[in-house]
Structure formats: C-alpha cells, structure tokens
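Sequence and structure are no longer studied apart. To make this concrete, we show below a single chain and its fold as tokens.
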Amino acid sequence: MMRKDSNMRNNINEIPSRGIGIKLISKIADKLSYTRTSDERNCLSIVKYFHPGIIPPQPPPQSGYLKQTIKFLNAFIWGLQKQQNHQFSQTYNQPIKTIHLQLNTDLKSVTQVLWWVEQLEYLPIPEAVLQQCKLATIEGFTNVVRHAHKNLPFETPINLEITVFNERLEVKIWDMGEPFDLQAKLIEELPVIWSELGFMLD
C-alpha cells in the first residue's frame, strides 16, 4: 500500500495540465458540461454510458409451419422486450450508488481521489469504464487544483460526486474558481472536427 502511495506522489507532477486533461476528459465522456451553479460555484459534469441494449440475432428465413412458429416467437420476444423497456425507463434514473468526497486544494490529495473511486469496484461496472472514470475524475480534480483554484487558499474545498446508474456513470466536480468557457477551450485545444467527437457538449 505504501508503494502505491509513493509511486502516485512521484508521478504527481507528470499529471497533465488543463489542456491535455480537458482533451482526455472529452475523449472519455459521452456527455460533458461545465456550468455555473446558484451558489457561485462551477460544476464539471462527466457522463459515461455502458451496457448498451443487446439486439438478439435474427433467425434465418424459414418456410411453412416453422416460419409461422418463429414469427410467433419473435412477436412474443418483442412483447417481453417492450415490457422490459418500460421497466427500464422507470428505473433508469434511480441511482444504484452515490459517493461524495470533499478535499482541500492540494495536488497530493489525488491519491485519496483514486482510492475513493476504487470503492466502486464491487459494482457491476465494466472494468474499462471504471478505469476511464478514475482517469476522468483525477484529471478533473487536478485541473481544479492547478487552474480554477490556482490563486485560492489551500483550504478552498473541492467537492466530488459519482453516481452510478444501471447504464451510466455521472461524475461531478465542483470548484470555486472563476468560470471558463469549456466549449471555447475545447475548440482551441482539440485539433479535430466537432462532428467527429464521440460525446455531446451541453
């Protein structure tokens, strides 16, 4: 455990600054927003979807009685899927778990952020998505420390929240710095055409 902590501290200065961090977050996120809240804070919201709906394979065309049987079974399966979709829509926005963390403006706290995210490992989240969640959360946190809170006291709080749903993760990071134009920053930093980006920008 000490070795892990030591390695993380040694690599803190290698964590990318805002430009690279924002690029990484934008590549990870399926939906990304940065808004000013009513309590004079800023909230970076990162949404990552997983477990897309699986379409069952279609049987090869048949004739006669077998064709009618398959047609009936397909209609039955479609009815079950419709019922499941209705149940899914009712539970889609019910969180499985929400975790919170508040830290001072201290780059060394990135180790705590990593351990905090790791408590989600027992949930049914694909490993790749969980690793992306860790990376996006760490990048978001370090961006706050290095930029949003650059001239603010050490005691200035940074609040983090991760909510896990059946089909997605939502990461939110609140800072108390001056707001910036996320869309303009991405246009400036990302050398790609907007239509080719794999995420939605609110």
Remarks:
- The longest helix spans residues 64-91.
- The longest strand covers residues 42-49.
- The chain has six helices and six strands.
